[in-house]
Amino acid sequence: MKKRFVLSAGLVLLTGVGLAFAAPDVKTAAAAAAPAVKQESPKVREFKDILFKLVRQDEYLDEAIETLDSSNGKMSLQDISAMSLSLKTITNNLSHVSALNKGEFASIQAGSELSTYTNTILSYSRKVDRKAGQVNVLVAQLAARSKKASLRDAVSSRKGGKKVRGKKISQIIDEQKAMDALTAGVKALRGASRGLNATSKWLYIASK
């Protein structure tokens, strides 16, 4: 399944600007003409990195939703396996971001400039959690249709491993196993998204 590495335009964040020091007689003019850019702190860069990672997972979930929604309840064994791999990667990445959030608890200070970033991180975490819920619904629908089709094909099958409706019994079994793995993968994704939402919420509260 093709992945896009496109960042949301909304990720562009503002940096602070300070006034340059100048001689008393030209202080105002110099400050207006040549303002100095405040150096970005390492901590700000850490939070930007967290946000960057979240935006990527949000876009990967968009792709998963689009793929599932356009499948019309029918996916090949290869497509199901590819979707499982994609969701597993997103799950691992969300768990990693949760760990990064937890690592910031000890150093975050209330009322700092970081509250702007923690608020944005919380906003994206909520979006990710909602989209993980959408994926869960779509996969559940796909699994129900797949199970119904498998039962129908199994009843119509002949002995001796002959093809039925263009499929062998072994292929039907493999597809059902892949669907079971996908269903389990979605449950793991939901757990990771909820955990991320929780850590992002507490990080934001700590920074207020």
Characteristic terms for this protein:
single chain; 208 residues; mainly alpha; Methane Monooxygenase Hydroxylase, Chain G, domain 1; two-stranded antiparallel sheet; 70% helix; elongated; disordered N terminus
SSE layout and pairings?
Layout: E1 17-18, H1 27-33, E2 36-37, H2 42-70, H3 77-104, H4 115-156, H5 169-207
Antiparallel strand pairs: 1-2
Helix pairs in contact: 2-3, 2-4, 3-5, 4-5
* Overall pLDDT: 79
Q: Compute the number of helices.
A: 5
Strand order of the largest sheet: 1-2
Helix/strand structural class: mainly alpha
Order of helices and strands: EHEHHHH
What's the domain count? Answer: 1
**Biggest sheet overview:** 2 strands, antiparallel
**Terminal-residue CA separation:** 41 Å
Uncertain runs? 1-31
Indicate the overall shape.
elongated
Chain oligomer state:
single chain
Helix content: 55-70%
Share in β-strands: under 5%
Report the CATH C-level class: Mainly Alpha
Radius of gyration: 25 Å
The beta-strand count equals: 2
CATH topology tier name: Methane Monooxygenase Hydroxylase, Chain G, domain 1
What CATH architecture do you see?
Answer: Up-down Bundle
